[in-house]
Amino acid sequence: MLGFMPKSLPGHELLPPSTLLSLTDVQQQGPDWIVRADGPARAACPTCGRVSTSRHSAYVRTLKDLPALGAAVSLRIRVGRWRCGAPACPVRFFVGRLPDVGEFRGRRTCRANVVARLIGYALGGRPGERLARRIGLPVSNDTLLRWVKRCAQPVSQEARVIGIDEWAKRKGHTYGIIVVDLERHSVIDVLDQHSTEAVEQWLVAHPDIQMICRERNGRYAKAARTAAPTARQTTDRFHLVQNLR
Questions:
Q1: What's the rounded Cα separation, in Å, for the pair 29 and 9?
Q2: 163: number of CA atoms within 13 Å, CB side?
Q3: Is the entire prediction scored with pTM above 0.85?
Q4: Is residue 235 within 8 Å of 215, Cβ to Cβ?
Q5: What is the 3-state secondary structure (H, E, C) of the chain?
Q6: Using CB atoms within 10 A of its CB, is residue 28 exposed (0-12), middle (13-18) or buried (19+)?
């Protein structure tokens, strides 16, 4: 039933699947939920790897977790600061890490980051921000785009068959050029300038191009004839169908 919210939630289902955390409390604060947990009773030094059980102090780390029934969930973990007892280690004190729970200095749990990243891939910046806020996982559009860029895989620059077309940085005002590897179906490069000289410079820097798929734009044809005279030129399917219509 829409709008139904239970009076209590099972705490063990709210914690990320990890043996490092032990549940201590679950509270409802307005429409949101606060889940409290304790971190591990020991930690390994990130420099030397020695396990320490000598606690120096503790602090509470807050992570945004996956929403529950449309309500935002905050995970507050009591994490220890530890002493490193290795004589040769330059680190005296260190903070316990939470692998598979939250990234170092991260503000969200790993599983919340996965969902937000998928939203960013599917919708992009502002639409993704609106959806994430609606489902109870608030995240800014800049963060979504930053995650998408960070997870982008490097592509090979050794392309043989490429497609060249314009892309709008600001539709109707500012345009650039996008270059795509048609064999690997991946973007190779994005040029800020929308000119014949920019295409010529890129083709000169990539002499292995054998085929160029382009629209019927004079600047692309001129650049290809000048900088890649041995490459075969062809019209891309989209513009060919448009012209046939």
A1: 13
A2: 17
A3: no
A4: yes
A5: CCCCCCCCCCHHHHCCCCCCCEEEEEEEECCEEEEEEECCCCEECCCCCCEECCEEEEEEEEEEEEEECCEEEEEEEEEEEEECCCCCCCCCEEECCCCCCECCCCCEEHHHHHHHHHHHHHHCCHHHHHHHHHCCCCCCHHHHHHHHHHCCCCCCCCCCEEEEEEEEEECCCEEEEEEEECCCCEEEEEECCCCHHHHHHHHHHCCCCCEEEECCCHHHHHHHHHHCCCCEEEECHHHHHHHHC
A6: middle
Q: pLDDT 10s digit of each residue in the chain, 245 long?
A: 344 445 555 556 678 888 889 999 888 888 888 999 999 999 999 999 999 999 999 999 999 999 887 788 999 999 999 999 899 999 999 998 898 899 888 899 999 999 998 999 898 889 999 999 998 898 999 989 888 887 766 655 678 898 888 888 777 778 888 888 888 888 888 888 878 888 899 899 888 889 999 887 778 888 888 888 888 988 888 877 877 87
Domains of the chain with CATH codes: 11-150 (no CATH), 161-244 (3.30.420.10)
**Helices 126-134 & 110-123 angle (0-180, nearest 10):** 130
- Type of residue numbered 97: R
Radius of gyration of the chain (CA): 26
Joined together, the tokens standing for residue 207 give: 């002499």
Q: Which residues are paired to 43 by β-bridges?
A: 52
